[in-house]
Amino acid sequence: MRLLLIVNATASSVTARRRVVIQAALGSGHSLEVAETKERGHATELARTAAADGVDCVVVLAGDGTLNEAANGLVGTETALAPLPGGSTNVFARTIGFSTDAIEATGQLLQALDTREFQRVGVGSVDGRRFLFHAGFGFDAAVVEQVERRSSLKRWFAHPLFLVSAFDTWFRRFDRKKDRFEVELESGEVVERVGLAIASNTNPYTYLGNMPVKIDPGLGLDSELTLTLWQDLKLIMLIRTGVSTLGSRRTFRRHRKVQQYRHVERFRISGGQEIHYQVDGDHLGTGSHFDVCFEPDALTLVIPTA
């Protein structure tokens, strides 16, 4: 089988030793090529070229951002995508069953390739930019921007950094009264004065250490999107609903200022001001409106055996 290994050498948990071991393992029974990303967006080009050249599987040793880029290069092709954990959180690799240890995950991948454990799945899309597990708008994305401004600390303090950035954003960098937008569903229903919106393609939303943050536990790879909207950004409310997603979700499910819509195929976000947005944990900037949809049967994944 022809494989392309895409490596982000600057990712949080990529080391020279792990890279050598992984390359040797993948190359022992397969035709392996290796490419290292040089800049943002490079993984998309590498993956797209590999698919056009007939590569069977693109393996990504990196974090979720680089994995997202590679997925965008493979959507609509028959070339499979396989993640190996190289970032600080590795949400998608963990979600589909890969180990958090890159060497152990490589063993899982080799076994899955041998037995051809491939699955065709759907992806989300924000104005044509696909996402594997979630897209965030408003406060959520503003927090991600602050995390990225401190990216040099992610290798050592990834999860504490996210929490610190969340508080910093709430107190100093986000206008909770003015930074609002409206969401129009496919049914025509309009939800106004939304401050935070998350479109989920899988569960969990992310991980806090070893704990999954569960917005919709029933969401799977073969489901349409789940859309969750927060109309209240009071600090105590965000803390209570956030803590709730780590456990029973009772407070989260019952809060009258949290609206959740399942099996969503498309919706539109618009506002009178620029809205921050992110996909799969990568801040992509701001915009005044976004069209979000679910694209079924879009991408082939390598799924580790149980």
Key features of this structure:
16 strands, Tumour Suppressor Smad4, alpha+beta, 2 domains, 306 residues, 14-stranded mixed β-sheet, 9 helices
In short:
The chain has 306 residues and is an alpha+beta fold.
List the helices and strands and how they pair.
Elements: E1 2-7, H1 16-27, E2 31-36, H2 42-52, E3 57-62, H3 64-74, E4 80-85, H4 91-95, H5 102-114, E5 118-126, E6 129-131, E7 134-138, H6 139-149, H7 154-173, E8 181-185, E9 190-194, E10 196-200, E11 206-208, E12 211-213, E13 225-230, H8 235-244, H9 250-254, E14 258-264, E15 266-279, E16 282-302
Parallel strand pairs: 1-2, 1-3, 3-4, 4-16
Antiparallel strand pairs: 5-6, 5-16, 7-10, 7-15, 8-9, 8-15, 10-13, 11-12, 13-14, 15-16
Helix pairs in contact: 1-5, 2-3, 6-7
What does this structure look like?
The chain is an alpha+beta fold. The protein folds into 2 domains: 2-116, Probable inorganic polyphosphate/atp-NAD kinase, domain 1 (Rossmann fold), CATH 3.40.50; 131-296, Sandwich (Tumour Suppressor Smad4). Helix content is 32%, strand content 36%. It is built from 9 helices and 16 strands. Strands 1, 2, 3, 4, 5, 6, 7, 8, 9, 10, 13, 14, 15 and 16 form a 14-stranded mixed beta sheet that branches. Strands 11-12 form a two-stranded antiparallel sheet. A hairpin with a 4-residue loop joins strand 8 and strand 9 (190-194). Helix 1 (16-27) runs parallel beside helix 5 and helix 2 (42-52) packs parallel to helix 3 (64-74). The protein is globular, with a radius of gyration of 19 Å. The two termini are 22 Å apart.
